[in-house]
Amino acid sequence: MPSSEQPSSKxxxxxxxxxTPAAVPTPAAPTPGESxxxxxxxxxxxxxxxxxRGPRPAHSRASIAAAAIAxxxxxxxxxxxxxxxAAALGAGTMSLYNYVPKKEHLLDLMxxxxxxxxxxxxxxxxxxxxxxLRGLAHEQLAALRRHPWVPAxxxxxxxIGPNALRYTEHFLAVTEPSGLNGTARLEALALLTGFVCQFxxxxxxxxxxxxxxxxxxxxxxxAAASGxxxxxxxxxxxxxxxxDSPDAVFDRSLDRVITAALAPVGRV
Length: 268
Prior knowledge:
By secondary structure, the chain is mainly α.
């Protein structure tokens, strides 16, 4: 899944730079993609999957991610651990750390593997940003419905792996005709991703049981009838039919989000 974080464009002020004593050399900033000497990269994507020396590894990042996803799909994210995934692979827990140094890396691999499921064959950019974004959003929602543990994980730890970057590249290609600059289009990416994740997560909660939905409807009905929330009561009175399918609600809400995402600043 794509990341919503943006790199800062601010540079240190001259006053800050001039406050450095002349006798103390200021260390050069690391080149993007490099790590501090003697320190292992924090991102797993900066670590080679294999060094090329020694026997062929028994496992791969892809197979490890697939095993972890199978556990999460069947038992939920709480069941995912290095020990559980190692057992699913028939490997020792400690041996798994040779491939995935820590659990956070495992989560990154899982998210990127899900992003790799997106089928772009029918999503070639057409020049119609709205139609193209609808297709992309539906492809993303389908993946989240297959893997209901993903939305909460994306919000907590945005994905920036190779497949997430391919999604970002496709999104930028789709929105190029909009005339928005790069910053605005990346913000639109974060906005739409957040919407799809939130919808999928709420959809899962609502499907958890009819009792919850009935209680919620009763609670809101009483609140509207109390007289304390006149705008809520008016909204319910003019809400129209409540039997729309989840897909219809998604499409209606998606159109509003796309309108906001593609609008120039100040024209939403």
